[in-house]
Design brief:
- The chain is mainly beta.
- It is built from 3 helices and 30 strands.
- Strands 1-30-29-28 form a 4-stranded antiparallel β-sheet, with no helix packed on it. A 4-stranded antiparallel β-sheet has the order 2-3-4-5, with no helix packed on it.
- β2 (27-32) and β3 (38-43) form a beta hairpin.
- The longest helix has 10 residues, at 370-379.
- The radius of gyration is 21 Å and the shape is globular.
Length: 380
């Protein structure tokens, strides 16, 4: 085990279904179309493509559009086939896609970030809101039916992650200071609920599980934190399984697995059915320096997949079964910049600095329910 990094799991692993090469630039964001029939990709140079799966499961461009300026983020509503593209100039361009995904028509243009680079765009169909953040350190939300600006909230740092809970209308805002802010959004105003901070680096990814009411945050400090929002107990579990900046987080609610990826290409599948403990000895909580103890051990039930320092007593008392990993580790073999998981079919998309998009079948790893497996195959 080199540098304490768990080796890729030799048994079950994601199945690489396809690779899309010969892209002009690095794809910074992409989404898988319903039933896996294709995908939409956006490159920073403004190249927007719709790629449809044809015979032989090969992807061919159905739409190739070049934006007038460089782009930074995107949101897509499969129910309404509306596409929102954020630019480095602070605008959001909305497009409408035809039912066969062969035609794209410009619709509204939203502009309210003082000409600064957009960082996140999020469309909420249930309330017809378009949320966006920019390097001007602001969160705005528009009515997506009229295009009217509903409200603005100024943040203390540039926002780098954004999630929304429809039931409570809470916005989860992660920023480059490592802080997560919870805001209550109303039609024309918002209020601060709380803030919390557990990362030493900037937030690079957020993922919200509305069923178990858990928020996951990934950071440049290589860690992931699971925040228990629904329990209101302040519980925060740190997950250590990466050796580079966390680039993406996706949650498979059907099987209760968290999928994370880092910029070095490592993918980690976390079994969230496991009950983990909060966390110095990383086991008992006592402060332990190197002089007091040279012992270390992985403690997966506390989220530590790598060996961490423990006191002499705990090192001897930890049973071998508690040292067994509760996660699986896989190498995507490209430096990941973005990931997207389509939970209805168990398919994962990764985009890398090598200008390649990879399509993965995650069902072998996630143990997708049999009824969903049948549904998936019957659609093909």
């Amino acid at each position: 085990m080199a540098d304490g990094v768990p080796p890729p799991s030799p048994a079950l692993k994601p199945c690489l279904l396809n690779e899309i090469r010969d892209l002009h630039d690095v794809v910074i964001t992409a989404v898988i179309l319903p039933k896996g029939d294709g995908l939409i990709s956006l490159s920073e140079d403004g190249t927007l493509q719709v790629l449809l799966k044809r015979k032989g499961d090969q992807y061919w461009p159905s739409i190739h559009h070049t934006m007038q300026t460089s782009c930074s983020c995107m949101a897509f509503s499969p129910e309404t086939r509306r596409l929102f593209v954020g630019t480095v100039a602070g605008n959001i361009c909305e497009f409408s896609l035809s039912e066969d995904y062969n035609k794209m028509t410009p619709a509204l243009t939203y502009s309210d970030h003082q000409g600064t680079r957009m960082t996140v765009v999020l469309f909420v169909l249930e309330v017809e809101w378009l949320l966006s953040t920019g390097q001007d350190k602001s969160l705005t939300w528009h009515c997506s039916e009229s295009g009217q600006l509903l409200g603005t909230y100024n943040t203390t740092a540039c926002v780098s992650g954004l999630q929304f809970d429809v039931e409570t209308r809470h916005a989860f805002v992660g920023d480059q200071s490592g802080q997560v802010t919870i805001l209550k959004l109303e039609q024309d105003r918002c209020s601060l609920v709380t803030t919390f901070k557990g990362h030493t680096g900037n937030i690079t990814a957020l993922c919200w599980d509305p069923i178990h009411r858990m928020l996951f945050s990934g950071s440049s400090d290589q860690s992931i934190i699971m925040w228990d929002i629904g329990g209101r107990t302040g519980t925060a579990i740190e997950l250590q399984g990466h050796k580079d900046k966390v680039q993406g987080l996706c949650y498979a609610s059907a099987t209760h697995h968290l999928i994370s990826c880092s910029s070095d290409g490592r993918m980690v599948i976390w079994d969230m059915n496991v009950t983990r403990e909060e966390h110095h000895c990383r086991k008992c909580g006592e402060a332990v320096c190197a002089k007091c103890s040279s012992n270390s051990s992985p403690i997966p039930l506390m989220g530590f997949e790598f060996p961490v320092r423990v006191c002499n007593t705990c090192h001897e008392s930890i049973p071998e079964k508690d040292r067994v990993s509760t996660s699986t580790f896989h190498n995507s073999e490209h430096n990941i910049v973005y990931m997207h998981y389509e939970s209805t079919i168990g398919i994962l998309l990764t985009s890398g600095t090598d200008k390649v998009i990879k399509i993965w079948d995650m069902n072998p790893v996630l143990k997708f329910p049999e009824d969903k497996q049948f549904e998936r195959h019957s659609d093909n």
